[in-house]
């Protein structure tokens, strides 16, 4: 018997293999396998084989988290890893609430809680927000109640009730809303319809803390995308009794639709119908997100399993923070021993928010107190370091052969610009990513086969927010080797010797000891008028470290600029921009702020400036195109 072909998956090839197999049998040597009757039978056999092959292939794929396609399969595998996908999460806003009470309200004390509702208008319509927590205030001298830094949570409140019977003591009890925000879940178990005594159950967090009397509940996602609530069995967690009423309260969230809202108005009476309520937003709504995607589950579940409920390694910190807070785009974590000089006993965290969001000081405290400290070593002190944004600008020259393309010079320029933007969008714009000169070159070169050569020059830009009409010192760190006489800023007005000088910019003049090719040494920072004349010195620059110190009294900026932009070109030996080494601002080895060199808290992003004769800004990406026929 010839060797059987069993590796084919396509229907026609399976049918051909069946024909060849039967032709090799002496009983069927003179049969016409393309005849009507046998052809139908072969179709049935091939169909059945193909059907079973596809089924086996699908079952194998759905058994592994990397290859599974159905959400229910990915969720089921993640469940075995101890991971529960995150639900919808309502946006959070902070602000100060002032209540002028109704004349009928005579008390000098006022408490507000989750029953106080607000609304905000988003692009999808009006969204509901409620007070998250309980706040109290005393009437001030103006007769008002002022609540500072209160937290508003987006969502509409929903109540569900279930009855536990002898068959469902442990559950599951299905929350009948796919958009539930699990962080707002409140579960109270009432003894019975007639016995109104209520016991509050809390979400399960750690198996070590759970015993037979622990009042905990467990949450998992079901096959249909809804979330189930389960209770203990009397061994792990307290068991329910038949007749108990499970009362579930939660918010139904609109996810990301609730982000970036600033105007909130009260929709419920606090002290009476004649009251006046004002809400001053100190932090716009942020952090709203949809239910976790399949790809996110694939990525996070193995990492969550690796943490084993603790934070020890850097990846532990990053995984738990990103899993807990949706408005965090990227996280960088490093031990203080890697600082220079080292700061022992501390772990530093830098968290980059998603576009349009912010990470408030309150949220940082919540991350430290609720996520990190319960899982970390007691000898390690976590500390947040704000991300340091460094902008990269590109000046390029592209030579192309017009005979090898139908694109115009303008099209080539657009393609090269898009290539640079793609490089930053796919490989940069997050913490801990390095800029490589050669990669930027290759992205441009690959944008069109007609491009013959690419020549680029890159530099860095820092943006400072000056304190107007006040003599201030500025410490600016580019943390890279700079090229002398190539430092320029946008225009501003400055006061010198009680006189205002209009439309000046920063420029550098190197010391006489700064010579090519190393260009090592220091220089003086001057203010320069539009004619290029240096008027007065305002600081110094170190070309080796990229550190610039300025002391000046800025009066105003030009155009719509809110920041003063300072551009520097890099030395030829320092075209790559790394984000690995750390350095401290102090000599002390036990404390001190951390700066990038550029470091793990540096985000390299593309300079989005455009040419502006009013502000003196130049384009962040400037590509000159030259045609050459070979």
Which keywords apply here?
about 625 residues; alpha+beta; 7-stranded mixed sheet; 6-stranded antiparallel sheet; 8 helices; 32 strands; about 35% strand
Distance between the termini: 64 Å
Please give the count of helices: 8
Largest sheet: 7 strands, mixed
Number of strands: 32
Q: Your description of this structure?
A:
This protein is α+β, with helices and mostly antiparallel strands and about 625 residues long. Helices cover about 20% and strands about 35% of the residues. The chain has a seven-stranded mixed beta sheet. Helix 1 packs across helix 2 and helix 3 runs parallel beside helix 4. The longest helix is centred in the first third of the chain and has 26 residues. The radius of gyration is 33 Å and the shape is flat.
Topology:
Blueprint: H1 11-23, H2 36-61, H3 71-80, E1 92-100, E2 109-112, E3 117-122, E4 125-131, E5 135-138, E6 145-154, E7 156-163, E8 173-175, E9 180-190, E10 198-203, E11 216-221, E12 227-231, E13 245-252, E14 265-266, E15 276-286, H4 294-307, H5 314-324, E16 328-335, E17 346-353, H6 361-372, E18 381-384, E19 388-400, H7 409-427, H8 437-445, E20 451-464, E21 471-477, E22 488-489, E23 492-496, E24 499-510, E25 522-529, E26 534-542, E27 547-557, E28 564-569, E29 582-584, E30 594-596, E31 602-606, E32 621-627
Parallel strand pairs: 10-11, 17-18, 19-31, 19-32
Antiparallel strand pairs: 1-6, 1-15, 2-5, 3-4, 3-14, 4-6, 7-13, 8-12, 9-10, 9-13, 11-12, 16-17, 19-20, 20-28, 21-27, 22-28, 23-24, 23-27, 24-25, 25-26, 26-27, 29-30
Helix pairs in contact: 1-2, 3-4, 4-5, 7-8
């Amino acid at each position: 018997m010839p060797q059987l072909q069993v590796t084919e998956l396509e229907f026609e090839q399976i049918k051909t293999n069946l024909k060849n197999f039967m032709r090799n049998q002496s009983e069927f040597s003179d049969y016409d396998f393309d005849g009507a009757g046998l052809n139908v039978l072969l179709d049935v056999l091939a169909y059945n084989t193909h059907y079973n092959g596809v089924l086996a292939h699908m079952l194998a794929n759905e058994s592994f988290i990397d290859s599974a396609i159905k959400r229910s399969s990915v969720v089921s595998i993640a469940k075995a890893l101890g991971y529960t996908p995150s639900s919808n999460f309502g946006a959070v806003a902070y602000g100060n609430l002032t209540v002028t009470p109704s004349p009928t309200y005579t008390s000098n004390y006022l408490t507000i809680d989750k029953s106080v509702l607000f609304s905000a208008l988003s692009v999808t319509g009006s969204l509901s927000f409620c007070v998250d927590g309980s706040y109290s205030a005393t009437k001030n001298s103006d007769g008002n109640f002022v609540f500072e830094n209160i937290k508003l949570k987006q969502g509409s409140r929903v109540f569900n009730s279930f009855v536990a019977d002898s068959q469902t003591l442990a559950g599951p009890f299905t929350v009948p809303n796919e958009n539930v925000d699990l962080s707002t879940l409140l579960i109270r178990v009432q003894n019975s319809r007639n016995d109104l005594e209520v016991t509050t159950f809390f979400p399960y967090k750690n198996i070590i803390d759970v015993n037979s009397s622990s009042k905990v509940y467990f949450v998992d996602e079901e096959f249909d995308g809804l979330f189930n609530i389960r209770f203990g069995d009397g061994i792990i967690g307290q068991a329910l009794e038949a007749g108990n009423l499970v009362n579930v309260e939660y918010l139904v969230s609109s996810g990301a639709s609730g982000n970036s809202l600033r105007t909130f108005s009260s929709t419920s009476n606090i002290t009476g119908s004649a009251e006046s309520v004002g809400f001053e937003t100190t932090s716009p709504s942020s952090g709203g997100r949809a239910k976790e995607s399949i790809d996110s589950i694939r990525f996070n579940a193995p990492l969550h399993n690796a943490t084993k409920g603790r934070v020890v390694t850097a990846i532990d910190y990053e995984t738990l923070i990103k899993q807990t807070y949706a408005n965090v785009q990227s996280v960088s974590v490093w031990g203080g021993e890697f600082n220079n000089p080292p700061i022992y006993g501390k772990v530093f965290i830098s968290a980059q928010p998603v576009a349009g969001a912010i990470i408030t000081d309150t949220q940082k405290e919540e991350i430290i107190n609720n996520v990190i400290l319960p899982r970390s070593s007691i000898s390690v002190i976590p500390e947040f370091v704000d991300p340091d944004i460094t902008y990269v600008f590109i000046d390029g020259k592209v030579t192309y052969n017009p005979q090898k393309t139908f694109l115009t010079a303008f099209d080539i320029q657009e393609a090269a610009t898009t290539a640079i933007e793609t490089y930053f969008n796919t490989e940069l714009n997050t913490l801990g990513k390095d800029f490589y000169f050669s990669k930027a070159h290759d992205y441009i070169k690959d944008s069109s086969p007609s491009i013959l050569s690419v020549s680029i020059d890159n530099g860095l830009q820092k943006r400072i927010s000056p304190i107007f009409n006040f003599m201030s010192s500025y410490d600016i760190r580019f943390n890279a080797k700079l090229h002398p006489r190539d430092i320029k800023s946008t225009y501003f007005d400055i006061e010198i010797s009680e006189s205002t000088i209009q439309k000046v910019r920063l420029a550098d003049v190197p010391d006489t000891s700064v010579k090519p090719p190393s260009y090592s040494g220091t220089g003086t920072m001057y203010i320069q008028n539009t004619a290029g004349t240096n008027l007065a010195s305002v600081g110094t620059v170190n070309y080796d470290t990229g550190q610039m110190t300025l002391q000046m009294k800025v009066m105003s900026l030009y155009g719509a600029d809110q920041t003063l932009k300072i551009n520097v070109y890099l030395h030829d030996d320092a075209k790559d921009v790394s984000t690995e080494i750390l350095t401290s601002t102090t000599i002390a080895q036990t404390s001190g702020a951390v700066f990038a060199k550029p470091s793990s808290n540096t985000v390299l992003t593309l300079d989005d400036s455009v040419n502006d004769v009013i502000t003196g800004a130049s384009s962040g990406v400037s590509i000159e195109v030259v045609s050459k026929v070979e």
